[in-house]
Amino acid sequence: KSPPPPPPPPRTAPHPRARCAVPRDPALCPLCKRRCAQPAVVRTSGWVFCHPCVVDEVRRNGRCPVTLANAEERDVVRLFSE
Predict the structure, then answer these.
(1) DSSP label at residue 20
(2) DSSP H helical segments within the chain, as ranges?
(3) First-to-last C-alpha distance (Å) of the chain
(4) What pLDDT digit, counting tens, does each position of 1-46 carry?
(5) Angle CA(5)–CA(14)–CA(79) in degrees, nearest 5?
(6) Which of 29-63 are b and which e, b meaning 16 or more Cβ less than 10 Å from the residue's Cβ?
(7) d(CA 13, CA 64)
């Protein structure tokens, strides 16, 4: 049996001028406020969003919408579980 996956990286603190409010429930996407059905992490910040939401945001603005850290589409990584 394979070992468990490593823990997620620590998330960077939200920027005071973030483009979206962070929901209290970490299972919700900060952009659409719904449960992440297709979760994806922004590698430059550690925040998780719905893949379609964050890819669109990163393409348009080149930043994580929570931390405003620079990000490119290649920094958005889909998350899968068994």
Answers:
(1) S
(2) 51-61
(3) 13
(4) 767 766 666 677 888 888 888 888 888 999 999 998 899 999 999 8
(5) 25
(6) bbbeeeebeebbbbbbbbbbbbbebbbebbeeeeb
(7) 11
